């Protein structure tokens, strides 16, 4: 067994020899601790610490190499295709409308080079310290990468692979000490923006587009500038009490990041962000609330504090500041910041679907008719059994199994 000391030495050596890439120092902070010195006095010590970042540019060029070597890149020659072949191809990659496009081949050539990035981050405690970790990866899209069938055709002797999971292998982007407050998490914004400004300029051959954020709450609330908890905790803007009102939810369009940013800067309270305030609408005095409403063209007869506060809450529907990446320059549009296509999901697919899947598996046996009931019951029993609460990742697997099971049953019948 290796002692911690030896282990530390091995790691240090590998970092020095660049075998381990721990990235660049980012987001410097001062970290205070206290200790008892040899005289028995309590002393305070301040240390400068950093988070670490592997620049997106580096991640992208490593990933391009890895995917190129893996043989999953498309590299199609559209000019050689006949119109019929091209039509067939468009259907295969789920872009049938491009076949009808008057310059479909040029468009597809361009789109093949547009690779979408996904971002994810979360908070966690390690040994009593709170850390934030950002991960990123390219999203699988058959317009950029081969389908499983094409891969098998191209490499008949190689083992079959799931191209999507090969492409979407998560890469560590930023890791650092950070509390869970907006203010602390925003310390990583500057370096994130620098990266985004660099990606389009510096990566040859492909055009990376930051496309989607897939984290859970509260990371999603942070990323979009929504309050955490409370009446308007959902990014969609529908109050929690109205979430079972399907009509209301159905007719509410979640705002884009640009719309959220514009909504914030259409008043005046946001200007306090320049002096370091992270949530400019929080704790406003009555006269400031009235000023804020008036700057948005809203004049109330009754100027009692609860009335004006309620009005502001209703207008903001949970928006507490601009989206995280817009906080440094609230007046810059999302196109200028290179995040025009960035979308923060309005739901947590894995968590939200867990209960639906559980219900489905438990209820289905009672709806498939007497002939199949027993089989579905025993399927339900072997997957869920007597578990009260299933985990999201398990639920995802169960629904895949359920699909397989049902297809097999269906095929057996005919
Ligand atoms: Zn919602």
UniProtKB/TrEMBL annotation:
<protein>
    <submittedName>
        <fullName>Uncharacterized protein</fullName>
    </submittedName>
</protein>
């Amino acid at each position: 067994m290796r002692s911690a000391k030896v282990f530390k030495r091995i790691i240090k050596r590998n970092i020095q020899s660049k075998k381990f890439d721990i990235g660049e120092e980012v987001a410097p902070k001062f970290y205070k601790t206290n200790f008892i010195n040899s005289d028995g006095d309590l002393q305070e010590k301040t240390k400068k610490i950093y988070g670490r970042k592997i620049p997106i540019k580096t991640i992208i060029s490593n990933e391009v190499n890895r995917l190129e070597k893996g043989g999953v890149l498309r590299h199609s020659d559209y000019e050689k295709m006949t119109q019929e072949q091209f039509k067939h191809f468009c259907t295969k990659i789920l872009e049938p409308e491009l076949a009808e496009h008057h310059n479909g081949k040029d468009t597809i050539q361009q789109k093949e080079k547009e690779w979408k990035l996904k971002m994810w981050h979360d908070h966690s405690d390690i040994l009593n310290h709170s850390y934030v970790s950002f991960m990123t990866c390219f999203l699988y899209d058959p317009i950029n990468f081969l389908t499983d069938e094409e891969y098998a055709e191209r490499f008949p002797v190689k083992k079959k692979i799931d191209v999507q999971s090969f492409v979407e292998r998560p890469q560590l982007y930023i890791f650092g000490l950070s509390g869970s407050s907006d203010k602390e998490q925003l310390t990583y914004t500057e370096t994130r923006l620098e990266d985004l400004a660099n990606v389009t300029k510096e990566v040859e051959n492909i055009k990376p587009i930051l496309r989607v954020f897939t984290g859970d709450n509260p990371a999603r609330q942070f990323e979009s500038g929504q309050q955490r908890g409370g009446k308007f905790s959902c990014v969609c803007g529908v109050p929690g009490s109205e979430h079972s009102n399907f009509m209301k939810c159905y007719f509410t369009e979640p705002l884009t990041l640009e719309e959220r940013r514009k909504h914030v800067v259409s008043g005046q309270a946001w200007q306090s962000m320049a002096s370091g305030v992270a949530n400019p609408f929080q704790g406003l005095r009555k006269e400031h609330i009235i000023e804020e409403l008036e700057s948005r063209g809203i004049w109330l007869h009754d100027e009692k504090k609860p009335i004006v506060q309620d009005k502001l809450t209703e207008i903001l529907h949970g928006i507490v500041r601009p989206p995280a990446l817009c906080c440094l320059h609230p007046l810059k549009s999302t196109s200028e910041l290179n995040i025009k296509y960035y979308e923060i999901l309005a739901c947590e697919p894995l968590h939200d679907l867990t209960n639906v899947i559980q219900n489905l598996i438990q209820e289905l046996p009672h709806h498939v008719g007497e002939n199949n009931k027993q089989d579905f019951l025993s399927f339900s029993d072997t997957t869920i059994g007597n578990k009260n609460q299933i985990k999201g990742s398990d639920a995802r697997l169960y629904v895949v199994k359920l699909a397989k099971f049902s297809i097999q049953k269906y095929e057996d019948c005919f």
